[in-house]
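Let's practice the habit of predicting before peeking. Look at the sequence and jot down your guess about where helices and strands might fall. Then scroll down.
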Amino acid sequence: MHDESADPLIGSTIDGRYLVLSKVAHGGMSTVYLAKDLRLDRNIALKILPPHLATDADFIGRLRREAQSAASLSHPHVVQIHDHGVGPQHAYLVFEFIDGYTLRDVINHDGPLSPRQALDLLEPVVEGLAAAHEAGLIHRDVKPENVLISHQGWVKIGDFGLSRTVTTSTNTRNLLGTVAYIAPELAQGHGGDARSDIYSAGIMLYELLTGVQPFRSTIPVAVVISHVQDQVPPPSLVVPGLPADMDDLVRWMTEKEPDKRPSNGTALLEELRHIRKNMTAAELDFDGAARAVALGAAHQQATDVVPAPFGHPQDLTAVVQAPNFPTSVLPPSRNLYADDPFADQHDGAAAPNAPALTKRQASAKTKARAKAAVTPRTSLGPAKPRRRALLWILLVLLLGAIAGTAGWYLGFGPGALATVPDVHNKSVAQAEEIMLAAGFEHFPTAEVFDETVASGLIVATDPGAGSSVRKFNGITLQVSRGPVLYPVPSVTGKQLEDAKQSLADGHQVVGSVSEAYDEKVPAGVVLSQDPPAGKEFRGNTKVNLTVSLGPKPVPVPVVAGKSESDAKAALQAVGLVAAIAPESVNSTTVPTGSVVSQSPDAGTLKAGDTVTLTLSKGPRMIEVPSFVGKQVGVATKALEGLGFEVKVENILGGFFGTVRVQTPDGGQAPEGSTIVLKVV
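Done guessing? Here is the structure:
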């Protein structure tokens, strides 16, 4: 497990577009991360190359050319390159993300495999190599770690365009590829071509069939020397009884001389399909591990137990203990065969003083003994030359007929090679007509999602267009289901931020956001959406939202000075509620029962809010003192101090300044009322 907390790239964004989520794998030439393409909202595999390459101008140019060349290769069994770039500190490549595991995981968990299982895994790899070789691309690093298998069962080979670029950037002719799978010509520094990929694929086939690599050592140089000098051993030495076709196939793919191998992936693919067609079901499903257990139980005294392959669990199969009274087998007669050359050695028992036989010698003698058993030693009657000649003629004619039939079958009949036509963007009916015209008879369909090809039309074929395939093989037509459609989630009633997250989780994005007042829905809550929930659209479709601003604000009207009834009517008209203060106040300016003041007296409120009104109970009543006979100045000052207005009327010029008459004189008068003083 990787310590992702210590990796500074986790959580960072590369080139402003690729958000690094987690580390997937780390190798000598790169580190692979699971990342998210923020622009297209999809997961991708981000391969970060060593930092020193980001400042190498020559490498940057080569990386661009190789990545563009590899990106032009579109094949169902090749991992697609989406992008490449060089940042301030990193050079990187962007691949499609394969959610699954590698062929190395399969070998470690299930190896060795049966021939059928091995060919099932090898064939799509060779298909991908064939497409690359036809496009002029060479992988140079074929190994189980570069073969990815999705959880849906798709097998794809990755890292095209990377090996050559990185190797050239080192300015050296050192070894290329993992030493366990390196071709002899690459190990010797002679360069390589498509046949180098074939050699590596042959080593990979050997490992699929046996569970181990043919050349193993703790010293890598020793492995390289073995690839250069030693012939790859037959896999049947590790898994006895393995069909001879598998030995021949591994030997052909791993010849030391490149000219003796298949010329490219297309040539190898044809042979793989031919071998599979001609092998019996028993040969294809041969289980080497089970056979070794059976032989060990039958020949416990004569046969050694073959050790389990390297890295394979040792306790997968247990031998059930024999009963206490097993049935005995009588020893065979030593004179079973009249001319048995091995009469002195049977069943692994050596004659006295005879040297012990090796397993290979014992196997050879057993085969010779079986051959001797079916070879007649005497003639059953006199020879008849004429009958024998007739038999030979019939045999020759029969063989000729068989050869002619086979030639027709493989040359012109259902077994002949034909080129898969291009039916991209054709309807199923049109594609079937084209396939029939090309000589193919079996073309099942499989539905796939595609963003560019309309629903019901052909996206691609498997094998791909241009491949050479025997006519009896089926050609799968991949029919478009159109783009992937996602239902629009319901976000009405959610807070705006929650609505955005719900849309992102549903593979949609927020479009325009408008606002509207609503008397019942709180501010910030989504009132409506367009398109509505439940309808299906492509990913990243914009959903427009209307968000509540809450209740509409109401300006507070001024009602001070109005009568109580008029003030209440004015507030009710704008949706506000009037409340009367419990205490009225005196006022010299506002009549009794009218509004003296209000709270609040300005600003805005929400509909239904309350405005408190304070009513007037008129002016205060004050005792009026009498100032008759007093000086007008003293009287005026005293009366004004009590809150009255004073009006002075002079009689005969008011020469003496004495108040002669006061109105009112005594009693009570409203505060602010006028007291008339007549002065003489």
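How did you do? Residues 485-548 form a domain with the Trypsin Inhibitor V; Chain A fold (CATH 3.30.10.20).
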